Hints:
seven-stranded parallel beta sheet, alpha/beta, globular, 34 helices, 820 residues, Rossmann fold, Nucleotidyltransferase, domain 5
Amino acid sequence: MTERxxxxxxxxxxxxxxxxxxxxxIIQIGIVIVEAGQIVETYATDIxxxxxxxxxxxxxxxxxxxxxxxxPDFGQVAKEIYDLLEDTIFVAHNVSFDANLLAEALFFEGxxxxxxxxxxxxLAQLFFPTLDKYSLINLAKExxxxxxxxxxxISDATATAHxxxxxxxxxxxxxxxxxxxxxxFADHLLYESRLVIDELYPTLSDYLPEHLVxxxxxxxxxxxxxxxxxxxxxxxxxxxxxxxxxxxxxxxAFAQIMEKRLQDENAHVHFIQAQAGIGKTYGYLLxxxxxxxxxxxxxVPTKILQQQIMENEGKRLSEVFHTDLASxxxxxxxxxxxxxxxxxxxxxxxxxxxxxxxxxxVWLCETETGDLDELKQQRYQAYFDELQHDGNWNEQSLFGxxxxxxxxxxxxxxxxxxLTNHAYFLEHVSDTPWMQExxxxxxxxxxxVLAAEEYASQELSxxxxxxxxxxxxxxxxxLLEKRLLEACSFELSHLLEQFRATGRRELTAEDLETLRQxxxxxxxxxxxxxxxLLGQKREFWLEERRVDEKRLSFLRASQExxxxxxxxxxxxxxxxxxATLEISKKVNVADLLGFKEVTFxxxxxxxIENQLIVYPRTLPDLVALNKEEHAAFIAQYIQDVxxxxxxxxxxxxxxxxxxxxxxxxxxxxxPHLAQHRHGTEMAIKRRFEKGEVPILLGTGAFWEGVDFxxxxxxxxxxxxxxxxxxxxxxxxxxxxxxKAEGKNPFYDYHLPMMMLKLKQAIGxxxxxxxxxxCILLLDNRLIDKQYGQQIKTFLKTEYQLESLEPxxxxxxMEQFLEER
Length: 820
C-alpha cells in the first residue's frame, strides 16, 4: 500500500498598505492557514506605519490613523509572522504584490522568506473560465465566498482561502485525463501555482464522470438528454404564471394579437407594432409554442440580443416547459476541435498562449455548444483567431460528429425553437431547407432593412490582391502576363493614392474599367471574384481599416437599389414585430422590405409613468463644437448627474466622440466602462449591471438591441438625437427611392425614423413595471430647429417631458426617482 503524501500547508495572505507602489508600508496583515481542504488557523494584526494615511486608503479600507497609532510596529510581530509562514506555500490574490512587500519587510528584520508562491487570480481564471472578471469582490459574488468586509486584510485573506478551497473542489471534479493534460502546460503558470494541481492529481479517480466523454484525448461534455416537452396552456396568463411572471396588460394584448394571426389562414405575412418594454419576447415565444404546430425560427437583430435571450427567456422556457431551444451564429464563433487538438501537440513558448490551452481544456468539460462567446475574459486574440471554426466539417476527422459546428447545425435543424440573428439569417435562408419550413418570427423587423443592406454589399481585399499580383509577378517569365500584372498593380496603387490624397471614397465604373479589362484579359482564375464584381452594376467605394496594427485596404460594392428582402424569405407564415414598424403616414417597414400584401396590427400606446425625459432650456449649438469641446460639454453634465448615485447609461452616435469622452472621464478619475475600449458589448453590459462601475458609454447595439432590466433605477444621457448620417449609402438609396415615389425623405422617413430610434433607446430602461428611469437629452435641435416641436409633441404622447433651467435638472431628476 502506497503511503499518502502529506498535504500541502498553504498560508493565504492579504496585506493592506499605505499605497500600491514598491515603497508602500504595511498597515494590516491577515493570514489564513489551509491544510487538507480545511482552514486550520488564522492570524490578524494592524501595523503602525508611523505616517498618516491618505484619504483614499482610509475610505477604501476603513482603517483610521487612531487605530494604527496603538498598533505594534512590524518589527514587533515579524518573528511571529515568519514562524507562521515558514514551511508553507504562500498564497494570495495577485501574489506578486503581497509576497514581495512582505518578503522585503521581513528581510529588513533579518528574516529571509523563500516560500513557494501561488496566485489565485490565475488559478481562478483557469478553473472558472466563463466568468468575466476575477477581482476578489466579483469572485465572492459568483462563487459565494465569505467576504464580510472587503479591503480589510483578514476578511480578504479569508475570502481568498475559501477561493482556494473552491479551486481545489473544482480540480477534484474534473476528470484525471483533463488535469493531467493541464499539468503538461502547468509550468507556464505564474510562480509555483502548479503545486495546487500537483497535490490533487494523484487523488483523482481514473474513471471518467458520466456526463463526459473522451474523444481524441480530449474530455468533452455530452449533450444534455432532452426531456419530453410539456404542452403549454392555450391561456397566455397561465403560462406566465408557470414561469413565475406577473401578468402585464400590454403584454397580454400583444400575445392575443399574435394568437389571432397565427390562426389566420387567409394571409401569411403579419406585422405587429407594439411599444418597447412590454415583454414582447415572451409574448411571441409563448404564443407560438402554444398556438402553432410548426417549429419556430426567431430572428433577432444582434448576436448580443441573441445571447441575452438564450441566457434569460430561453433558459427559463427550457427549465419550466422543457422547450428544446438552439442558437446558431456564424462558424467563427465556435471552437474547431481539430485545430485546438493540433495546438496542444506543438510546443509554444508564449506563456499566455499556453495558459489559454489549459483554460480551454477546463472549458471543454463544461460547454455543450463550443461557442467561444461563453469565454468572457480578455483573450490572447491571435490564438483565438486560429481556433475559430472555418465552417468546413469532415466526417472522417478525429472528432467527427463531436465537431461543435456540426452539432450546432444539427441542433438548429432539429430543435423546436431556433434563435439566430438578422445577418446570419439573410446569408443562409435561401440555401437552408430547415429555415424554409418554420414559423418565422422577425424581431425588431425595422433593423432587417439595414442588415439586408450589409448583406447586399460585397467586399474584396485590395491588400491581398496586391500581394497576389506581386507574387505572380515574381514567378512569371511570360512578357504579356508580366505587363498585365504590372498594369493591374499600377491601377490599384493609383486608386489608393487618389483616395489618400483627396479623401474621395466613391468610385465610378469608369474609374475601375481599365482594371477590369486587364484582369479579364489576364484570365487567371485566382482573380475571378474581381472580374465578376467589377462587371456588375454596382456602387463602389474604398475603405481602409487597421487590423493588428496594419493598414488594410478594401474595395466595397453594393447594388444601386434597396434590396427586395421579401423575395428572399420563405413562403411559410411570417410575423414581423417591432415598436417601430410604422415609420410615418407614407412609409412603413413592410414597404422597405418589399412586401405587397400584409396584415398590420397596432397595439395602442399607453402613457408611461415610470420614465421622465428632461432637457435644458438653453443649449449650445453642438454642430459648432469640435469633438474635444463636445466631449467636455457632455462630461460636465455627467459630473453633475453622477451625484444622483444611480447607474448611468450614456448613448452616443459617434465612436470617436465616445472614445474622447472616455479619455476625459478617465483623466477626471471617474470610473466607467466604454464600448470599444473595455471589452465586448456583452461583457461590459454584465459588469455594468453588477455595479462594478456607475457609468457605461455605448453606441451601436446599445441604442436598440440591449435591455437593462437588472437595475431598479437608471439614468440615461443622450447627447445627440440619433439621425442617420446623410452621407451613408443606404440613406442615399432610400432618399432616391422616396423622391421617385413623390415623398419627402426628411419628413416622411429620416425624422420619424430618428424619433422611433430615440423611443427604442428610451425603452432600454423600461423593462419591467417597477423600474424607474430619467432620460436627459442634450441636443439643441430640440429647441432651435423648426422640427424640434414635432419631436417634443411625439415624445409627449407617451412620456413625461419637461424643459428646465440647467441648474434645476439634477434636483428634478432626484425628485422623480425618489417618488413611489
